[in-house]
Amino acid sequence: MRIVIDILIVISIFFAFAGVVGMLRMPDSFCRMQSSTNIATLGVLGVIIAGVLYAAFYLHDGAMAVKLVFMGIFYIITNPIAGHAICRGGYKHGVRPTKKYEVDKYGEDMVEE
Amino acid sequence: MIMPELLFFAVCFIVLALCLLFRLIQGPSVVDRAVTADSIDILSDMALILFALYSGRSVFLDIAFITAILGFIGSTIVARYLEGRL
After folding, report:
1. Burial degree of A48 (CB within 10 A; 0-12, 13-18, 19+)
2. What does DSSP assign to residue A27?
3. Which residues of chain A have pLDDT under 50?
4. Direct distance between the N- and C-terminal alpha carbons of chain B, in angstroms, rounded to an integer
5. Does the beta-carbon distance from B61 to A5 stay under 8 Å?
6. Nearest CA distance, B45 vs chain A (angstrom)
7. Share of chain B above pLDDT 90, in %
8. Nearest C-alpha of chain B: how many angstroms from A102?
9. Across the A/B interface, how many CB contacts are shorter than 8 Å?
10. On the CB side of A44, how many CA atoms lie within 13 Å of its CA?
11. Domain range for residue B66?
12. Total of domains in chain B
C-alpha cells in the first residue's frame, strides 16, 4: 500500500512539473492557460487519491478521508469554470494570440456586435 | 506508521511553486499573472495536504480547503473585472 501511495504522488508531481515547464516555456497566453489546467486537474487527482488511501488505511481517520474527497470534487468542478471565465475575460480585454489563426469565430462575433 | 517521504514530496511542490514566481513577475499580460497566481495557490494547497497527512492533523486540510475557495473566487472576480461587468 505504501508503494501505491508513493507512485500516485510521484505521478502527480510529474504532471505538475510538466504543467510548470509548460507555463514557463509556452509562447502564448492561451497556451499557458491550457498548461495551467494540466496542473489543476491531473496534478491534484493523484495527491487526493493517495491522501484518501493514506487517511483510510494508516491514520484510520474517516473525517479526513471524507474531507479530501470533497476537496477533490471541488477542484474538479471549479477549475474548468475559472479557466473558461478568465479566458473569455482576457479575450474581451484585448489579449490576442501571437499568431494569426485561420478560425477565430469568437473574434468575428465580437466584431459583428 | 509515519511516511517521511511525504515531507520530501511537499518540498517538491513548494519548489515547483517557487519556479512559477518567475512567470508571476515577468508575465506580459494580466491574464498570465492571474492564472499563475491561481496555479501557485493550487501547488501550495497540495503541499499543505501532504503536510496534513504527514502530521496527522486535519487543521491543515481546512486551511487548504479555504485557500482553494479563495483562489477560485479571486480568479473569477478578476475574470469578471476584465470582462467589464464589475
Report:
1. buried
2. S
3. none
4. 51
5. no
6. 9
7. 40
8. 23
9. 143
10. 28
11. 5-83
12. 1
